Amino acid sequence: MKKTIASSLAAGLLAAMALPSLADGIRVDGFPPFDTHFDKQVNVFNEAHPDIAVTYQMNEHGDHHKKLTTNLATQSGAGDVVIVDVSFVGAFINAGGFVNLSDAPYNAGQFKDGFVSYAWNQGQGSDGNQYGIPIDIGPGVMFYRRDVLESVGAEIDGVISDWNSYIEYGRKLKDKGVYLIADAGDVARIIVRTTLQEGEGLFFDADGNSLVTSDRFDNAFTIAKQIRDEGLDGQIGAWTGEWYDGFKNGTVATQLSGAWLLGHLQNWMAPDTAGKWGASNLPGGIYGSWGGSFLAIPAQSENPAQAWEFIKYLTTQPDPQIDSLKDLGAFPVLLETYGDAAFDEPLDFLAGQKARRLFADVAKKVPAVTPMKGDLIAEDIVMNGALAEVLNDGKDIEQALKDADRLLKRRIK
Amino acid sequence: MVGSPHKVSQVAQTPNRARVRRASRLAPWIKTLTPWLFISPFVIIFSVFTAFPLFFSAYLSFQEWNPVAGLSSMQFVGLENYRTALDDPWMWKSLYNTAWLAVVSGIPQHVIAIPVAYLLVTAVRAGVRQVYTATFFVPFITSTVAISLIFYTIYSGNAGILNQWLLAASKWPVFSWGLGWVEEAMPIRWLSSSDLIKPSIAFVVIWKYTGFNIVIYSAGFLTVSKDLYDAGKVDGCNAWQQFWHIALPMIRPFAFFAVTLTIIGNLQMFEEPFVLTSGDSGGVGQSGLTASYYLYLVGWEWLEMGAAAAISWVLFLFIAIATSVHFYFNGRKGMGGDR
C-alpha cells in the first residue's frame, strides 16, 4: 500500500516536472479574446512551421496578470510567450523577467520602422532595449447610438465639436431618460490619456516626477464632475451587468473607449444592437490611446527561439494583424496594413460606416504614452481613488489631486 | 524514515551476534523516531505551508521586493516598510474600516443568534429545530464570492432588487409614512457612495455568519441541564429570568468561543469588501478598504511585497491586541474557569 502511494506520488511528481518541457512545443499565456485569434492563427502558423506546436492558456485579464506576477516571482510556470496589457508594461518590463529582444539572435530592431512608433517605444525598457513587441493598440474613439442621436435630432459632428456641446447633448438626453455615458469617470480617463507631451507617462514625466497636479488632470476631472453633477451619467461601473444592459437597451448614448470595444460589443455584449451604433472622434478634437497589448518572452522560457518565431508571425506579418482586426476588433500595430482593403470595408455593426479608416487616422495622431514603473499604483490612487472621491463624494478637485499627489510621492521613490 | 527498512535488510545479512548488537543499538533510535514518523505529515505540511510563509513574510517585511523581478532582486531596507506603513493614510483608513466593520458586523451576529438559538432549543421540537438550524447554516457554507456577487446585484443602483423593493414598499400606504424619502433618494447607490459602502458590506457579513453562530449557541443551550430550569421554576423564575439568569451564564464558554472566532474572522475580512467594491481599490473614498484588502492591493496590484508584508504584521499586531483584550476581560470566566 505504502509503496503504491509512494510510487504514484513519484510518478505524479515526474509528470509534473515533465510538463513544462514539451519538446519544441510552446505555450502562450494570455487573456480573452486572444483565444479566438489563436484558434485561427495557430493553424496558419503551423503551415509554415509544422515543427512548432502551439498551445495557449487563457485567463481573465486580471487573473492572467496575477498569474504572470507569480510566475515571474518564482521563475517558473510562465508560458513561452506572454501577453502583457499596456497598463502592466511599465511595472513588468524593467524588472528583468523578460528576454531582451534587441540582442541577437532576435534583433528586434530591424522591425522597428514597420510599427506604429509610439507602440514600439512603449515596449522598450528604460535601458532602451526591446522587451515587448506590440500586437495591438487602442486608438481612443467614441461609440454612440445612432437611434438615440436621431431621437433628439442631433448631429454627431455637432455633439463632438467640443465638450460643452457634448454635455449639451447629454442635457437633451436627460429629458428622455437616457444617460449620456455610463460613467462620467470615463470622460476623465480618456482626457488624461490625451494632450500629453512627447515622452511623458500618464502620471509621471520623463524623470519620474508626478504630473497629477497638472492642468491635464484638473481639466479632466472638472469636465467629468460637471457631467456627474448635472446627473447626465448613469454611474454605472464598467464590465458589470448594468453596463452591458445599457448598451443593449440604448439607455446609454455614448461610450468613450479604445477601438477594441467594438469587438466586445458585436461579439458578446450587445450583438443584437447591430446597425444601431456609430463611431466618431473623441469630443473636443482630442486624440488619445486606450489600451493595447504586448508580447514578451519570459527569461525562464526553454524555447525562446520558437516563441520568437510565433511572435514574429503574429506581429510583423500583415495577415494575422488584419485577421485580428476583423475577428476581434483589435487594431493593428503594423503600418503597412493600413493600406489594406479591410480598412475601407463598411462595418455592418456600425450601420455600414467605414470606421476602420477613422481608427487608423486616430492611431496616427495619438500621442505617445511612456509606460512608467508606478503606473499601477497611480492608476489606483488617482483614477480610482481621487476621481471617485471627486465624483461621488463631491471632494474639491484641487484638494483631491493634491492628496493623491502626496500619496503617490510617498509610495514611489 | 524511509531508510529504516533498508537498513534492516542490510542487517539481515550480517552474522547473528552482530545483528543482535546492531539491533539493540538501533532499537532506541527506532523508538525515538517512530512518533516523529507518525506526526511527520503534519510537521511537513505545517512547516511548508505555515511556518515557512510566516518566517518568510517576517523576513520580507524588511526588504524591498518587486516580485516580477524575481527572488534575487530583494533589497534590505531595514524598517523602511514599517515607517511607510505607519505613515500611510490609506493604511490607517483601512485599519479604521476593519475595526468599524468588525464591530458593526460582529455584534449583531451574536445579538441575533443568541435569542434565535434559545428559542430553537426551548420552543421547537428537535426534528424541526434541525431543519431550521441547517437552513440558517446554508449561507455559511456557501462560497463567499458567490454570495457577494449576488448581493452586488441586489445592491445595484438602477436595476437592483433592493432599490426596486424599497420603491414599491414606499408606495404602499402601510409603509409610506416611513419611506416617503425613498423616491427622492432614488437611485440609492449602496456600493458607490462612501457612507453606504460599509453598512452594505456589514449586512452581507451578518447575513452570512449569523447562522454559524446560531449553530454554536444551539449546541451551547442544549448542554444546559433541564434540572437547572426546573429548579429555577420552583424558585419562581419567569421565562425571561430563566433565559437571563440561567441559560445565558451557562453558555459563557460557547459565547467566548464564538466571539473569538468573530473577532479574528472579522479583522481578516477580505472577500466581501473585495467583491462588493469590484476590486476597485476599496471603493469610493476607500470606504470598503479593509486591512487584508489593502495588503493584497499593495502586494499584488502595486507589486510591493515587502510593504505588503509589513502591513500584514501591523494587522497581526492589531488582531493580537484585540484578541488579548477580549481574553483579558472575558477569558477566565469565558473558558469556564469559574465553574
Secondary-structure element sequence of chain A? HEHEHEHHEHHHEHHHEHEEHHHHH
Order of helices and strands of chain B: HHEEHHHHHHHHHHHHHH
Mean pLDDT of chain A: 88
Shape descriptor of chain B: flat
Q: Indicate the structural class of chain B.
A: mainly alpha
The biggest sheet of chain B, with number of strands, parallel, antiparallel or mixed sense and barrel status, is:
2 strands, antiparallel
User: What proportion strand of chain B?
Assistant: under 5%
| Radius of gyration of chain B using CA atoms only | 28 Å
Unreliable residue runs of chain B: 1-12
Q: Which stretches of chain A of 5+ consecutive residues score pLDDT under 50? A: 1-22
CATH superfamily of the largest domain in chain A: Periplasmic binding protein-like II
Supply Rg of chain A: 23 Å
Question: Helix amount of chain B, in percent?
Answer: over 70%
What is the CA–CA distance across the termini of chain A? 58 Å
Tell me the total number of β-strands of chain A.
8
Annotation field: number of helices of chain B: 16
Class of the largest domain in chain A in CATH? Alpha Beta
Task: State the strand order across the main sheet of chain B.
Answer: 1-2
Number of domains of chain A: 2
How many beta-strand runs of chain B?
2
Instruction: Characterize the largest beta sheet of chain A: strand count, sense, and whether it forms a barrel.
Output: 8 strands, mixed
